[in-house]
Structures are given as C-alpha cells and as structure tokens.
Amino acid sequence: MLRFSPEADPGYLLSWGQGEPARLWRLPDPGADPLVLRAPVGPLIMGMAVSADGRWIASSSNGDDRLVLWSTQDLRAPAHMLAMPGFARSIAFSPDGRWIAAKSQDQGIEL
Fold it and tell me: Confidence band (pLDDT; 50, 70, 90) for 110?
C-alpha cells in the first residue's frame, strides 16, 4: 500500500505491505533512507494516515484491536493507542487534525 501526503509540512510518503515494515520518507528528500515503523502487535500494518500538519501518523495492524498514533518527532515507540472493535482497514484524519475516522474490520466507522 502507498499513501502520499504532500499537504503535510513536511510532506510524507508512506509505504507498507504484506511481510514488510512500514516505511516513511520525508519530502522533499525521498532519496534519503526511510524511517521504519514496526507494528507494536501483529505482523502486518493494515492502514495508515498522516495528519494535515504532519505531526501524527495513525496506523493499525492485524491481530491488534487498537489504532496506534505515532508522533513524527519520535517514531521509535507509539505515542498513544486507542481501542477499536477490530483492526482498522482504512484511516483518515480530519483537515484540522482534531479527529480520526477509522473503518473497522466489522465495517463500522469509529471517530
């Protein structure tokens, strides 16, 4: 999967996939080595999003019923973990960054 977030400051390019850790490139330097995000639980990251201000990344992984928030200032460990009714397949931040919408495995939408 791929998520391009040029509107964030700085912009980001995120990639993740089966059997691979998530990778984050800060723009405008996509040639630099990417930062690596590892799911705290579960082998696969299933969904990711970047806040419009570029301060937060939200991720979810299979085997984990939590939405994980990462500060882009320190990607070594999650900043927050929010309970979900199943892992989130799709994640989006509101334009002002105050809300996160997540479509869970059971097809429900959580805010």
Answer: low
